[in-house]
Amino acid sequence: MSTTGTDRTTAWALRVLGAIVVLAAAESIAAALAARDPSPVMWPALADAIADRDDDDPVFVAQDWLGPTARMHVAAAAELTAVTHPDLHGVPRFHMIGWGDDGSKAIARALEGGPVPSLVQRREYGPLVWSTWTSPSTDVVLQTLTSGAVEVTTSGGPCRGRGTHRCAEGEVRPRIIEVDYRPRACLATAVSDGTTVRMRWPNVQLGERLRGHVGMGDFNARLRNDAPVRVVVRIGTQEVLRRTVTDLQGWSPLEIATDPGVAAVEVELTASLGGSFGAKGYDGTHTRSTCIELRTIGGAP
């Protein structure tokens, strides 16, 4: 090989090596940033200020990685209603804790078509930011159906029990489940293949909207079963929604316009498969849960 060729090969090798070094350095910096954890000495002032606030508005955390540490120090951020909030519809005012961030990105994810809130106040505690937001909407949550009393039936007949409803084909009960990589508070159904679960609330205070989400939990169960779920919603005797939801849709929102008043609401969930696929084939044991949350939303009085 000529000297010129050798020089060119050496030059290219050095460039490749340099690129690898730069990439490795960039990945190291990114990993360090992702893993950073604010020192405990930064938290007392922020925690005391939030504890002394003159409202009961929810406190959310802007970044997922910051959540565990924030909830260790700020009691309001660890409340279940804050950790499992489904979206920002019907939330007139709230707080955000962020690391160098007022929470704008997290808010954009949670809006789901709702009105954009306004920043009221921003306070900084070193790299920690506490921001307060208000929504221009006057909507409020009138009733959270999936945390109240419900009548549950299947083709096998009425399900027994309160809280946990035991059916011939499985069970329905309130749970906190990981759906789309976040904890969700919902009614969870875990039943045999093809079972239709009917959940009925006889006297629901309706506002302008019936809003909720459907999703499948959890991560391991979704890996082994991606069968869709059929969702049917009725108000009174009228069917107002029929939809098929897959695990690829994550925390899938549903919303129905309603007339204010009192009426019965019924939801049907039908999962074609409730088991899991593994090395030995299909196991029909109930391993995947269908998770639903439902609220009525109306204008504030």
Mean pLDDT comes to 87
What's the total count of β strands? 19
Main sheet specs: 7 strands, antiparallel
In angstroms, what separates the terminal alpha carbons?
87 Å
CATH architecture of the largest domain: Sandwich
Low-pLDDT runs: 30-35
Domain module tally: 3
Order of helices and strands: HHEHHEHEEEEEEEEEEHEEEEEEE
CATH class of the largest domain: Mainly Beta
Helix count equals 6
Radius of gyration: 25 Å
Instruction: Classify the helix fraction into a percent range.
Output: 10-25%
Shape: globular
CATH topology-level fold name of the largest domain:
Jelly Rolls
Structural class: alpha+beta
Percentage of residues in strands: 35-45%
Brief overview:
With 301 residues, the chain is an alpha+beta fold. The protein contains 6 helices and 19 strands. The longest helix has 33 residues, at 3-35.
Describe the structure.
Helices cover 22% and strands 43% of the residues. The protein has three domains: 1-35; 40-137, no CATH class; 141-299, Jelly Rolls. A hairpin with a 2-residue loop joins strand 13 (229-235) and strand 14 (238-245). The strands form four sheets. Strands 5, 8, 9, 10, 12, 15 and 19 form a seven-stranded antiparallel β-sheet that branches. The chain is of the alpha+beta class and 301 residues long.
